[in-house]
Amino acid sequence: MKQNAKQKKEAPKNGLLVLGLFALYKWLQKAWAKWMSNKTKRISKRTVTIALVVFVSLTSGYCIYLGVHAITGKSKGNAFTVTSIKSPRHLTESGAMESPLPPISKQDYRRIQKFRLYMDSLARSPSGDSIIATRPGLMDSVRYIEKEYQNFKNQ
Question: Which stretches are transmembrane (predicted)?
């Protein structure tokens, strides 16, 4: 109930701020238009038309020049170059990835399994949650190493 009353009191303040900023924006627009009108009052309509035609002609000509130059591409410095794609060294001819890891010994694999079991038992305890929270990718890495070992063993 009190929150609704506070929100109703704050809403008009925000509304007044927006209205004030809008009024300031309108005043600046009018002041700018008046200033520009006073500065261009002495220039004839014909002069303004000629200046507009010259400006549009120069701008259009430059845009056309850029378009033609981009299509023809006569200058080698600004043209796009095509570079060939080189396959990484860890890919075989068939496109299958080679294992970037060296083979793991059985003793190392057993140590990794023991570590995983130890971390699983720690996950059940309250202190183990903090280890998993601070190192979220640790168990994913252990599972990845075990999977790679199994793949290497099956080959």
Answer: 48-68
Does residue 43 fall inside a structural domain? Answer: yes
Give a yes or no: residue 93 inside a domain.
no
pLDDT above 90 covers what percent of the chain? 26
The C-alpha atoms of residue 138 and residue 126 are separated, in whole angstroms, by: 18
- Whether residue 115 lies inside any domain: the answer is yes
Cα(122)–Cα(17) distance, integer angstroms: 57
The CA-atom distances, in angstroms, between 54 and each of 2, 38, 39, 44, 113 are 65, 23, 20, 16, 80
What range does the domain containing 60 cover?
14-72
Query: Do you know the residue count of the chain?
Result: 155
pLDDT for position 98: 58
Q: How many domains does the chain have?
A: 2
Closest CA to 129 of 121, 146, 11, 91: 121
148 touches 101 (CB < 8 A): yes
Name the residue type at position 125.
S
Cβ contact 119:142 at 8 Å: yes
Q: Specify whether the CB–CB gap between 107 and 116 falls below 8 A.
A: no
